Amino acid sequence: MRSGSGVLTDKSTFVGRAQELSTVRKMLGGCRLLTLTGAGGVGKTRLALRAAELLREAYQDGVEVVELATLETGDLLESEVATALGLRDVRRDPMGVLVDYLSRKRMLLVLDNCEHLSGVCARFVDRLLRSAPRLQVLATSRQTLRVSGEQVLTVAPLSIPDPGPGRGHTVREVGRHDSVRLFVERAAGAVPGFRLDARNVAPVAELVRRLEGIPLAIELAAVRLRSMPLERLARELEERFDVLVAKAPAVLPRHQTMRATMEWSFRLCSAGERRLWARLGLFPSGADLETAEAVCSGDGIDRLDVLDHLTGLVDKSVLVRDGSRYRMPEALRAYGCEQLPPPEERRLRRRYVEHYRDLVEEHRIDRMVPEQLDRYLLLQRELPNIRVALEMCLGDPALAPTELDAASAMWCFWLLAGSFAEGRYWLGRGLERVPQESRCHAVGLWADSMLAVRQGQIAAAVRGLEEFLAFARREGDENLVARGIRSSGVAAFLSGDARRGLALVRDSLAFHEAVGDMDGIMFDLYIGAAYGSTETPRQATECGERLLTLCESRRALVFRAYAQLALGVAHWNLGERRRAEALLTAATEFTGRINDRWCLTQCLEVLAWLAGARDEHDRAAALLGAAHAMWQAVGTSPEWISYHATWHERCTRQARAALGRSAFATAFRQGSRLGPQRAAAYAVSGAPRERPGRRGGRGSKAPVTAGVGGRRRPRSGTSPAG
Q: Phi and psi (nearest 5°) for 37?
């Protein structure tokens, strides 16, 4: 489950809220949509996350939490939720995929921080609830969504002691209040040994009353005990609040309190810390030290001082350190952005765009390099910040080519992550703004076609590739021509013209071998091994073995998994089951671990065939179900992929015949509910291991006979699907 925004990290204890948790449970028992509302910093996110944790076992299909604070535009809401649910590619209809996936799910979907997308969220939730009768939604927002059937729980601040002398000032009475318990716990973290006693009970009670029991305000105040005594802390807060009330008397009291606490905390920071706080507000998913130094230094912040300022902001609970990254609670991030003077903001945005433009180009994963896995994981972490940079570019006509270049450079990331719809969203917006007769536009068309063809949109892909090839030939750019020829080969395979596909890939491979382009050779070999496996399995095996050797010699770990997949499919078509299973099991273990949904989907599919070949039809049905859920997730179907189509149909037919329709449906349904990580673990746990030096034996080889044109086909009755 994802953590939400807030000062507390996931390891922080959850204080109080017993009554609210009970109320959430009861209200969800009688409604489909419950929205937690309240002022910023009041604890909506923490309450929702705690409720989700406690209610997980009550939902057959689990609880999923989606953090929306990092989403800058409502255009990507549906894709973001689909991605969080594991539905990686959602074609041009992410809502349709979500509806189909959730229509039979007994699930609680938590949407955290909806307020900046309230209108879009309202329409989204309304359609989901109408289409998925067993789905429930728990939302957090500063305002209601105004959806039919919505129930609202206003999250109040934590309980505070009664005011006035002689009332509730005993340690026992004051200590019962959740606001006091939170303050004391956080104060003990700032000043080891701090505890509530007769000497400090009165100022503690006064302080939490002044902060109106707002958790974020209490935490910001508690950490200040490192630098000032309790009495001075209470006095400074009171003075600051009086100033704010005089400036903005019409503001609601709790908003005044939170605002005053942030302003007070901001003023107590050093000048460098204040500047860094404001600049880091631009990063929805936080930043590491290197990024903070690159983007935020200058204009009053020396690069060498950035680490000290980061440390100071962590000490003041303005930032939370999460591994090597520093992130900011959403309320503090929004406040920080407000503090940026317009000229400084313009300069900061320019550095931000330049940084992420360079990062995307330098961390391309369509390269045979040892850092390939690190690059993939980095792009996953930085994606919310990259989105902000792409959106900034689209707001400035002069930067439109920068946006399209960056989106195109990420084509392989969009592909491996299965984020076809999001990739095409950014590519499409860039293509609309960049002149057609330019290299930038042509490469963007190529990248868009590479995603479209895997969505089954062959005609659109072919049109884009034809335009791309026409540009490449006019420019006399042989590298681009070879790229277009290879991609046209993929389109030919998926159109059912395998002979033409093989010929085009051979042409591309010959060119890349002539010029020594190892990246191009890698892609050519993969297509030859995977797509050619059903037509020429022996040649496909040769391509796959060469590809695997190349990936291992270059330590390109991400592509190695695809080499194992392609080679495994080729060995399957040769009837060499043990070798196929060993390769696919290794690929499954790796891709499940790094969250590569596209490769994992295909591995689960082929492992189902292998289970069927061992007459383990219940296991085959479960793996088919797990693969089915992920085929939906990546927005395509095994029937659309040439090297999957026939075997998928045969495996399904055989398992259904062996088990009977009812038992098959049960096993299939159970597999579809596993989710990617559990499906990968299940697939690996039951896979036989290849023993060195041992060949033959049960299931080691499927009898084959020659087909038309030298193609080898399994004999009827001996294949996985019979």
A: -115, 170
